[in-house]
Amino acid sequence: MATTPAPPQTPPKPTWDPRRPQPPFPWLRPTIRIRLTLLYGGMFLIAGILLLSIIYLLAAQAINTGNQPLFKIVGFNSLNVASPSCHAITNGLSLQAFNDAVRECMDSQRQAALDDLLSRSLLALLGLAVIAFAFGYAMAGRVLSPLGRITRTARQVAGSDLSRRIELDGPDDELKELADTFDDMLERLQRAFTAQQRFVGNASHELRTPLAINRTLLEVHLSDPNAPVELQQLGKTLLATNERSEQLVEGLLLLARSDNQIVERKPVDLAEVASQAIDQVHAEAEAKGVKIRGERRPAVVQGNGVLLERIALNLVQNAVRYNMAENGWVEVTTEVEHGQAVLTVSNTGPVVPAYEVDNLFEPFRRLRTERTGSDKGVGLGLSIVRSVARAHGGHIVAQPREGGGLVMRVTMPL
């Protein structure tokens, strides 16, 4: 029976992560505060330059209007003149030379006055521009302070602290309306999250109980040595089916829980978690002839130990089960790289096309199959791994290995 090809998967959209590290120079970012400061200061600077230009032109026009001298000496018999600023005026000059020297001196004095006015005005404008930029920066920070509160609350909510509220005081403006809308959204999210937690708890009890009863009844029936062979074979088949249903229920419940952020975090060493997962899969690996190797260095992260152990266990189990029939191996390594903890699980196995790697993380999806129907699992292993990694602020990347198999790389913040 031909299988329907899976629809093409659209690349995931980049999501905003409020826990991402801040840039080394946050003050260089073009924030709204910086842009408003530049806008306020730039407008003041432009207005000041225009005002200074107008004043300078008016002053020059007023001075040039009276450019003609108020008096002119038409004759003298004996005149002694000395000027400390006009060195061209000396004794012994003719009448025309004396009048020309007086006119040149007055022109130079007018130009010196204009130059002095311009230089002093530029210095005053520079000082006022600095004050204007500082004042604009302070005022922009005061106006945008509600946005800072909204951002801080959003970051706290990103850590699953849905009880946080902005509760912005002040005038009933657009920012207060935004904060109140955000508070209403958080209130609805908290109610939905609480209802989901309650549902998961109830579903966990309601779904596990009948499966546990069925398993007990089947085990009691199989323990009877006088039971017919056909009934024993049927009981084993039903027990395997019941065990598969239990795994499916556990996987679905874990997937539902791990889609949320982790509230209570404790130091967990990925090397220890990986070693425990290897111990649990060791017998199965020996039965399949798969060798497990790799160096596990300390890599301590803040998270939930049970969920992190599930990451390592699912990855190692998949690496062992989807391996070669002979001479297969699984390599499990942990290390700290670029300030992040890294868990890498590589294995030999069938060749995986690169375009099918993303499908492996979808629930109930396997390589070249879409639904469950394999005795190797219930099709939720990698989905749970991805959800748990995201809940811890990390991510998982899968790459086809040359020659067959996969390289699974889980990265988490320290």
From TrEMBL:
Stretches for region Disordered: 1-22
Topology within the bilayer: Multi-pass membrane protein
Catalytic activity line of the entry: ATP + protein L-histidine = ADP + protein N-phospho-L-histidine
Domain named HAMP: residues: 141-194
EC number: 2.7.13.3
Broad class of enzyme this protein falls into: transferase
Assigned GO CC terms: plasma membrane
Molecular function terms, GO-annotated: phosphorelay sensor kinase activity
InterPro entries the record matches: HAMP_dom, HATPase_C_sf, HATPase_dom, His_kinase_dom, HisK_dim/P_dom, HisK_dim/P_sf, Sig_transdc_His_kin-like_C, TCS_sensor_his_kinase
Transport recorded as keyword: no
Keywords from the UniProt entry: Kinase, Membrane, Phosphoprotein, Transferase, Transmembrane, Transmembrane helix, Two-component regulatory system
A Pfam family of this chain: HAMP
Lineage: superkingdom: Bacteria
Subcellular localization(s) per the UniProt record: Cell membrane; Membrane
Keyword Calcium in record: no
Transmembrane region(s): 38-59, 122-140
Main location: membrane
Domain Histidine kinase, residue spans: 202-414
Protein name according to UniProt: histidine kinase
Species this protein is from: Streptomyces diastatochromogenes
